[in-house]
Design brief:
This protein has one domain. Helices cover 28% and strands 33% of the residues. It is built from two helices and six strands. Strand 4 and strand 5 form a beta hairpin. The structure holds zinc ion (ZN).
Protein backbone atom coordinates (compact mmCIF):
# COMPACT_ATOMS: atom_id res chain seq x y z
CA UNK A 1 0.00 0.00 0.00
CA UNK A 2 1.27 3.42 -0.92
CA UNK A 3 1.11 5.59 2.14
CA UNK A 4 3.39 8.33 0.88
CA UNK A 5 1.82 11.70 1.32
CA UNK A 6 2.87 14.47 -1.01
CA UNK A 7 1.50 17.92 -1.41
CA UNK A 8 0.35 18.79 -4.89
CA UNK A 9 -1.13 22.13 -5.79
CA UNK A 10 -1.77 22.70 -2.10
CA UNK A 11 -3.64 19.43 -1.73
CA UNK A 12 -2.55 16.45 0.31
CA UNK A 13 -2.41 13.43 -1.98
CA UNK A 14 -3.70 10.25 -0.37
CA UNK A 15 -4.44 6.75 -1.58
CA UNK A 16 -8.00 5.88 -2.57
CA UNK A 17 -8.46 3.56 0.40
CA UNK A 18 -7.77 6.23 2.97
CA UNK A 19 -10.27 6.33 5.82
CA UNK A 20 -11.33 9.56 7.45
CA UNK A 21 -12.27 9.38 11.10
CA UNK A 22 -14.15 12.06 12.96
CA UNK A 23 -14.63 11.93 16.69
CA UNK A 24 -18.11 12.35 18.17
CA UNK A 25 -19.54 13.47 14.86
CA UNK A 26 -22.53 11.13 14.64
CA UNK A 27 -25.61 13.39 14.81
CA UNK A 28 -27.70 10.56 16.28
CA UNK A 29 -25.51 9.23 19.06
CA UNK A 30 -22.28 11.28 19.10
CA UNK A 31 -20.28 8.21 18.14
CA UNK A 32 -17.23 8.43 15.94
CA UNK A 33 -17.83 8.38 12.20
CA UNK A 34 -15.55 6.77 9.64
CA UNK A 35 -15.88 7.85 6.01
CA UNK A 36 -14.53 5.70 3.17
CA UNK A 37 -14.66 7.20 -0.31
CA UNK A 38 -15.94 5.05 -3.19
CA UNK A 39 -17.12 7.51 -5.87
CA UNK A 40 -14.89 9.90 -7.77
CA UNK A 41 -14.85 12.94 -10.00
CA UNK A 42 -12.00 14.94 -11.44
CA UNK A 43 -11.60 18.57 -10.51
CA UNK A 44 -10.65 21.32 -12.99
CA UNK A 45 -7.03 20.24 -12.86
CA UNK A 46 -7.72 16.57 -13.54
CA UNK A 47 -7.11 15.54 -9.95
CA UNK A 48 -9.45 13.04 -8.34
CA UNK A 49 -11.79 14.13 -5.61
CA UNK A 50 -14.21 11.94 -3.69
CA UNK A 51 -17.94 12.45 -4.19
CA UNK A 52 -19.45 9.40 -2.49
CA UNK A 53 -18.64 7.87 0.85
CA UNK A 54 -19.52 4.88 2.96
CA UNK A 55 -20.15 5.96 6.51
CA UNK A 56 -19.73 3.86 9.61
CA UNK A 57 -20.80 4.85 13.08
CA UNK A 58 -18.63 3.44 15.84
CA UNK A 59 -21.61 2.47 17.98
CA UNK A 60 -23.13 0.15 15.38
CA UNK A 61 -23.56 -3.25 17.02
CA UNK A 62 -22.78 -6.56 15.38
CA UNK A 63 -25.47 -7.40 12.80
CA UNK A 64 -25.97 -10.73 14.57
CA UNK A 65 -27.21 -8.94 17.67
CA UNK A 66 -30.54 -8.46 15.98
CA UNK A 67 -32.45 -6.63 18.67
CA UNK A 68 -29.63 -4.35 19.51
CA UNK A 69 -29.02 -3.66 15.85
CA UNK A 70 -32.68 -2.91 15.14
CA UNK A 71 -32.68 -0.47 18.00
CA UNK A 72 -29.50 1.13 16.75
CA UNK A 73 -30.85 1.33 13.22
CA UNK A 74 -34.09 2.97 14.37
CA UNK A 75 -31.98 5.46 16.22
CA UNK A 76 -29.98 6.19 13.10
CA UNK A 77 -32.66 6.43 10.45
CA UNK A 78 -34.76 9.34 11.59
CA UNK A 79 -34.98 12.04 8.90
CA UNK A 80 -31.60 11.27 7.31
CA UNK A 81 -31.95 14.11 4.81
CA UNK A 82 -32.33 16.59 7.61
CA UNK A 83 -30.04 15.10 10.23
CA UNK A 84 -27.38 12.98 8.55
CA UNK A 85 -27.00 14.63 5.17
CA UNK A 86 -25.73 18.04 6.33
CA UNK A 87 -23.05 16.24 8.34
CA UNK A 88 -22.03 14.19 5.30
CA UNK A 89 -21.99 17.27 3.10
CA UNK A 90 -19.77 19.08 5.57
CA UNK A 91 -17.34 16.18 5.67
CA UNK A 92 -17.28 15.94 1.88
CA UNK A 93 -16.45 19.64 1.58
CA UNK A 94 -13.77 19.38 4.22
CA UNK A 95 -12.14 16.38 2.54
CA UNK A 96 -12.21 17.86 -0.94
CA UNK A 97 -10.82 21.17 0.25
CA UNK A 98 -7.83 19.38 1.64
CA UNK A 99 -7.27 16.10 -0.20
CA UNK A 100 -6.91 14.64 -3.65
CA UNK A 101 -6.72 10.92 -4.33
CA UNK A 102 -4.33 8.64 -6.15
CA UNK A 103 -6.58 6.11 -7.88
CA UNK A 104 -5.04 2.77 -8.72
CA UNK A 105 -6.64 2.35 -12.12
ZN1 LIG B 1 -24.23 6.91 15.65
Amino acid sequence: MNTAITAFDGFVMVSEDKEFKFKNLCPYCKGNLTYRPYGWETDDNGLWMAVSFDVDCSTEPDMEEEEEWDYWFQNHSEMPYVIQMPVDEGVKKYINRKYRFNLKS
